Amino acid sequence: MKHKNLHILVVDDNPGDQFLITELLGETGLQISSVEKAISVTEAVEVLKQKQVDIVLLDLSLPDSQGIETFLIVNKHATHLPVVILSGVNDINTATDAIALGAQDFLMKGEFNEKLLEKTILYSIERKRNLHDLRMSKERYELVSRATNDMVWDWDVLNDKVYRNEEQFVKMLKLPPHLKNEGQDFWISRIHPDKQDVLDKIIEELESDNNISHFEEEYRFLRGDGVYIHVLDKGYAVKNEQGKVLRIIGSLQDITENKKAEEQLRESEEKYRFFFNSIPASVFIWSLDDYRILEVNPTATANYGYSRKEFLNMTMLDIRKPSSILSFMGFVEEVKQQSFTSVSRLWKHINKHGDEMYMQIVSNKIQYNNKEAVMAIASNVTEKITLEEKLKEERQRMEHEIARAVIVAQEKEREEIGRELHDNVNQILASSRLYLGLVKEKEGEHRSFINESDVLIQNAIVEIRHLSHALIPPSMQDADLEKSINSLITIVQEGSGILVSKEVSIVNKNVMSEQLKLAIYRILQEQVNNVLKYAKATALEIQLLQKECKVILRVKDNGIGFNPDGKTQGVGLMNIKTRATLQKGIVKLISSPGNGCEMIVEFSLS
Questions:
Q1: 121-124: long-range contacts (C-beta < 8 A, 24 or more apart)?
Q2: Window from 139-153, 259-273, 363-377, 536-550 with minimum mean pLDDT
Q3: Model confidence over 295-306: pLDDT tens digits?
Q4: How far apart are CA 606 and CA 603, in angstroms?
Q5: Fewer Cβ neighbours under 10 Å: the N or C end of the chain?
């Protein structure tokens, strides 16, 4: 401060006193830039408004003001400045009153020298600055106390004196304000019995290690309304060189709501964990970013054979076959859409032993540990699916057996009808023709009618012979399939005039069973009949080829054709498909209006 250039205001209406003070100021060791002078309160106020001043030396007896009123007026315009009272013997009581109201010091006129004046000025300026800093610090402290919901406190440990923020003390603890600065015994008496030694333990821990200066402690505190609340007490300790705690500054926070929320969260987590662990379905939680498995329940470990530790080192790709990875990646993109919430889907998984499992999985998008994840609840439906597939196979087998029985019955019935026509009806017609031959030997007027009857009977015999050949199945043991086809072609050409081309290329006839040969013959026979009835064709192509483990029958005509999608399947086509299915055959029709029809039947020999 001695090196600072000071601006001093001297307020005194006595010229002699002003002169003396100015001289003494010049003899001090202070660096003084200027000495302003005023002989009244009015002049002093004007100087304070217009000039820079560091300290005021004030006489209380002035022409326009007397006594303590003089100080109050000047101090009003110099609240930030130190004021030293220049007092006479008669004004000493007034001077002490001024100090009580904020003046920094007083000097008795005629009783001080330059050294006392210098000392008084320096101390007054420093004291004013300290008071200003203290006031600002207190204001900041009050502002901080009001800005937080915490109760701020300051504990002088050695003297057991405490300062607590009154507003939060009353608001948080519901205690009367006159108790706010009660000492350690008061505070301990309101701590729950399970932690009444908490303050001693805090002091003990702080003093046990000189590197420890901060602490946090939770305990329950009895409010003024008789309710215990959960509080978090945090503080900073000031220690001496020996590590003894002298003072602790801290804050008290009411965490009751947090504790309730934690308890509710804990209960919720317990319920979730109970559900998660006891649900009979396998539950997976997996990351949407890298597909890593984040959590599984005991059912999943039992179903898949992996331990929980093994699962947590795996991804959802590890429980799938490579062939289903592409489908899974498409599903991931679907889940990433903002509109996705939940979906149920059937998936194939593999367990630790490599066995395939059918899993009906309900997938929900969730947040897990601040990550986008999927909770998958998977029910093992392998047994159900397997049973359904077996039932389906059994149903198909029964249908095949029924169809086979029907076809066998049809073949038997056809054979009986054919033999009846061939053996009995033809014999009757043949006998009738024989008698007509006897009649024709005799001349008569009805000879023309007899000749006509003879022709009709002959035609009937031919037609019945064709019909019986069609009804009676060829014996594939006596005559091979190709000969039977040739016979069928001959009948078609003789009866319809359609030009038929044929290609038969069977490498090994022995690989075909008698049932397959008969099925091929009947399918060909059925399709040829369809062509004769509906196609209005002039040409027909027939191919029977063997390629590796397959036999292919192809029948193509140049008739009027039809739309396969729009045409209702008739009995003939139904018979063809039934016979093909019984021999593991697949029927394909290619046709369109005006472009004929091509039927391809492919049989597997494996």
A1: 121/6, 121/8, 121/28, 121/30, 121/55, 121/84, 122/1, 122/2, 122/30, 124/55, 124/82, 124/83, 124/84
A2: 139-153
A3: 999 999 999 999
A4: 9
A5: C
Q: Which two tokens stand for residue 29?
A: 């060791």
User: How many helices and strands in the chain, by DSSP H and E?
Assistant: 18, 22
Residue 470 confidence (pLDDT) above 60: no
Q: Does domain 6-139 have CATH number 3.40.50.2300?
A: yes
Q: How many Cβ atoms from other residues are within 10 Å of residue 574's Cβ?
A: 11
The first and second tokens of residue 356, run together, are 């395939």
The candidate with the shortest Cα–Cα distance to 58, out of 3, 115, 26, 101, is 101
> What is the tens place of the pLDDT at every residue in 420-459?
565 556 666 666 666 666 666 665 656 666 666 666 676 6
Residue whose pair of structure tokens reads 């100090």 in the numeric block: 99
User: For residues 507 and 490, what is the distance between their CA atoms, to the nearest angstrom?
Assistant: 24
Per the DSSP assignment, residues forming a β-bridge with 586 are 602
Is pTM beyond 0.70 here?
no
Phi, psi (deg, nearest 5) at residue 448: -60, -40
Superfamily of domain 279-380: PAS domain (3.30.450.20)
Instruction: Name the 3-class secondary structure at 18.
Output: helix
Which CATH superfamily, name and number, covers 479-604? Histidine kinase-like ATPase, C-terminal domain (3.30.565.10)
Q: Is residue 106 classed exposed, middle or buried when 0-12, 13-18 and 19+ CB atoms within 10 A define those classes?
A: buried
Nearest to 90 by CA among 75, 71, 109, 76: 109
Which CATH superfamily, name and number, covers 148-260?
PAS domain (3.30.450.20)
